[in-house]
Amino acid sequence: MRELACDVAVIGAGTAGIAARRAADKAGARAVLIERGPGGTTCARVGCMPSKLLIAAGAAAHSARNTDLFGIRVSGVSVDGPAVLARLRAERDRFVGGVFEGLDDLPAETRIAGAARFVDRDTLVVGEHTRIRFRAAVIATGSSPTVPGPLRGLGAGLLTTDTVFETADLPESLAVLGAGAVGIEIAQAMARLGVAVTVIDAGDTIAGLSEPDLADQAAAIFGVELALHRNATLEAAELEDGGVRLDWTDRQGRAQVTRAARVLAAAGRAPNLDALNLAAAGLHLGEDGVPDFDRRSLVCAGAPILIAGDADAWRPVLHEASRQGEIAGTNAAALAAGRAVAAVEPWTSLAMVFTHPQAAAIGAPYTADRADRLVGAMDFSDQGRARVDGHNRGGLRIWADREGRLLGGEMLGPAVEHLAHLLTYAVADGLTAQEAIDRPIYHPTVEEALKTALRGMIQQKDKC
Q: Mean of the per-residue pLDDT values for the chain?
């Protein structure tokens, strides 16, 4: 077995792992990158980029069918499923190729292929061919789709977010288990491409929205294009007549049956940690199987090991994974050199869903207790720019403390990917509602919706 020694061993070549490897190099450490494969990052290969390509195709079909509002008549719209998926994979492969190009810049001797496992708190074995002694290690092994028990054993009838984009054609019908960000994005896109879609979710939230009125609005909006069932419990699943039969219970406790050509498991992703033999490294694992770690330094308790990206199950989105990777790589190099690690304050949380309308959650989460909060609300139904574009659905809910300092909010509507950034920056900068409203906003733009919500918040404060 080959024997190697390094300052920093990075396990995983996704977004967080690549960032950690580069940060460790920059800090002067001798680093190696261990790749189990397939490479290309979750975002580029099976996540945000291919899903957005599917969403874009669905939006094009939907727009072509819905031009009457503007006095434009279009007929004969058809969807070529294989062509849609061929473009998706071609563009996806371009994004993955870009990731590989970045990896190709690394010296070959510092890239090791294979599955890693810990032998002790400073030793890894990769496959059966390489033993690595390290001074510090970074776990950046990413995540894999969670498949609920009833769906296991469905064989080709089951799709996951890792396999759905590999199908040769669009299915005639699709059952989606999960109405979170990925589930509802794919469900709406598929429906707009002509697939009969049913969504089943155990909870009451949808598209990451927990504010009750916005969640209800989202359910009503998406329910026009697909069958959406919240507070439902999947009881059983089986193959039937070349498709899948799902037995489930609705919110009233009534037994229901859904039949579809395929079922998509979109009930979240779990960290890829089981094969690492973390106990041998002396790490203490929580009930979720993730090591205890400090969220500012990303150092795990009990060993010179750090964890970053989807592997830590904290904020599984690309911009967080990239930043966490950089922090972990820098701190791993510091540990390897006997220096103190840096404690970095987390960013204001930001999560988006690219449905139509879009959804986002920013900063402090929703709470039903409003005793210590001001809440500003607005409805897009009569917002000027939204009506011009025919996208006047949804609303905003923004909250602040009793002094008017912005804490966060949730959004459902047009251009939310831009509105959410503005609110995120305002929260991060510690602005009050008045300070935020004093900033310029051009007319007519959807951004004016923020002023409406902020004015309502200020009026509440003035009445206190």
A: 94
